[in-house]
């Protein structure tokens, strides 16, 4: 596919361009603070940058009449309103977590929450020492998926990108479901999956778990 | 419930009586090589002993017209034939693995096998050094659940009751689903679940995964 | 060796007799609330029972003039005084933790504490849901071995006999040193090691880490 | 310190410059295929590039009369000869593995190999699916440290940078010592440690484990 990236000079933007190219897709529109390459019509635009970029991003989506994959965090209410308006014309995939693995585990926990009702469960999450929030947003996401309150233990050590362990036990056995991010590459692969999926959709507002649901 | 146990002096039999009692059930029929206690009509009979005991077990089931939970291994074809005949009158739950956790993981792997198709996967199983077969039957069961061939690594060290790890990875992340038996108690709890479930069933031949499926 | 066990009917006592016999040692003195078997002179007496038994235990050690291996917990000051008096005549090994593995890990942490100074470190310990103290005594023991304050996370789930993970991380890598008790058998093997070691010692008061130190 | 890097445009070279700068050291000599920056006298030169670069590297070390930290792999016999000649004038630290953690674990295993003699042990190593050699060189290094033959299991999945688990077990307990590379950063930090250490040394030929030994 021909794709566009907003914020392509940032850490995630660079990685997204690289990852999409590895899968034989062509960057035809590259935007950072301004449009820097515009050599063809993109089929989809991907933005994992800052909320301030959203206006420019949406104007480009409208110009080309193409779908949007949005991984920008810290969106405000009015951003969501604008996104939902645009999603009447073109499909939008918005999520705060584009890791395929975490969304897959959340799906497993949600679907099997009843089976795990009789088990004790606690959660351990490990992140680098610079991460200040405890517990991680992902820990809360997994807790919600399981539909019960879990005791959550947060370790902050070294340079660990992110690890989550959901540990179940009864009298006679334990089950552990764990996820580890090797690198930010995980999120770039999630963006790729979303971009490929959104091409096949009609207008509408979707999250990353919708992408996985319909695989 | 009032229950009966065949082979109640053996390691598993002892544990089954103890576990059922902890859950307020009453042993009313205790059989080892012969009937040793028969103080009331059982509602269900449990047998985790030897294939040679099956004839006596079934004659007791017929005498009381009650269901059977059977965890005996190394059954032959003719045993299955007899069991299926009896299952026309009363429900039978037969399985080589009454661990709730392993059956739950198998169910998860089966249901999500499509989601894991794009991930690399290998399996590690660790058992005590006396276990001779490699890979474990459970490893094969998990592989079948995942519906693809997996490379399986078997460690045989110390007194480990049994541990299985299914490790998935793609470029950017890993997911591990692992199970550990703490002790044989796991299997006694599985027998309990099967016994409680079978009371609510009509005649028929069931496996332990049917028990879990309908929870 | 010929050995004696005080409290041989208890859970640990039974296991000690069984474990020592597996290693070709002979029980010649079996004591529970009273002396129940006394068929020969023991070379060592082992007691993992109650503080109240200590008086009888010591009188038997004096009678035969043999060393003592003591795993009884909750000893009071006066017990220690009596033990130290006796240790002038015969060697005594006393410890609250006869797990070879935990003592080995403590020794590793103590010896390498300087190497780990630049690493972040936190500890996770997992025990069965009935265990009320947090953190475990073993967690504190490991922290002391490392000679620095560690954040300790305590999980209480299911029937887990005991698991400790010391997790180190710097910017680029992690090291985990972990221990898991499979069963109480660990402690019986520790008692065996102490008993075999104490036979070679002169009088004196020793702990289990002395036993491991001189291997 | 003022430092020089040969091969500074490569993946490891870039990372080394960045890591040293984070620790307040100044790059004053940057060399790739030719000298590209030479603004001051370096106190040490670091080379993690190709064997072909060694000649230029050594000529620069001689020009400034400064020590060398060398992480280049696939060195031939004559390279070692030249290095040892140079090490009579200035100290050289040469190693195929500059991970602090792996060298630390090797040191632990070597020092405690006697304590582990009675334990069963096997090794599991997990690397990305592009890695072709099995078992990893590091697995062999750890086996040598332990001074006994170990069964080694090699998993090749996804993008895992490198994970090694040495799993010990006896009848009653398990001990696992494991290492995980988060990223190549581990090796850059090892180079930094070697560079800081080598400044304090007289002439001589050293390996990375010497660096750790004398901390």
Automatic annotation (TrEMBL), chains A, B, C, D:
Gene3D superfamilies referenced in this protein's UniProt entry, alphabetically: NAD(P)-binding Rossmann-like Domain (3.40.50.720)
Q: Where is the Dihydrodipicolinate reductase C-terminal domain?
A: 101-212
Q: InterPro entries of this UniProt entry?
A: DapB_C, DapB_N, DapB_N_CS, DHDPR_bac, NAD(P)-bd_dom_sf
Q: Which positions fall inside the Dihydrodipicolinate reductase N-terminal domain?
A: 37-98
The EC number of this protein is 1.17.1.8
Give the subcellular location: Cytoplasm
Q: Which UniProt keywords apply?
A: Amino-acid biosynthesis, Cytoplasm, Diaminopimelate biosynthesis, Lysine biosynthesis, NAD, NADP, Oxidoreductase
EC class (word):
oxidoreductase
Residues bound to NAD(+) are: 7-12, 32, 71-73, 95-98
Question: Do the record's keywords include Amino-acid biosynthesis?
Answer: yes
Q: So, what pathway does this thing act in?
A: Amino-acid biosynthesis; L-lysine biosynthesis via DAP pathway; (S)-tetrahydrodipicolinate from L-aspartate: step 4/4
* Transmembrane regions listed in the UniProt entry: none
| Positions annotated as active site in the UniProt record | 127, 131
Q: Known HAMAP family for this protein? A: DapB
The Swiss-Prot or TrEMBL record describes its family as follows: Belongs to the DapB family.
Task performed by this protein: Catalyzes the conversion of 4-hydroxy-tetrahydrodipicolinate (HTPA) to tetrahydrodipicolinate.
How it assembles, according to the record, is: Homotetramer.
Name of the featured protein: 4-hydroxy-tetrahydrodipicolinate reductase
Protein's organism: Thermosipho ferrireducens
The beginning of the lineage is:
Bacteria, Thermotogati, Thermotogota, Thermotogae, Thermotogales
User: What is the primary gene name for this protein?
Assistant: dapB
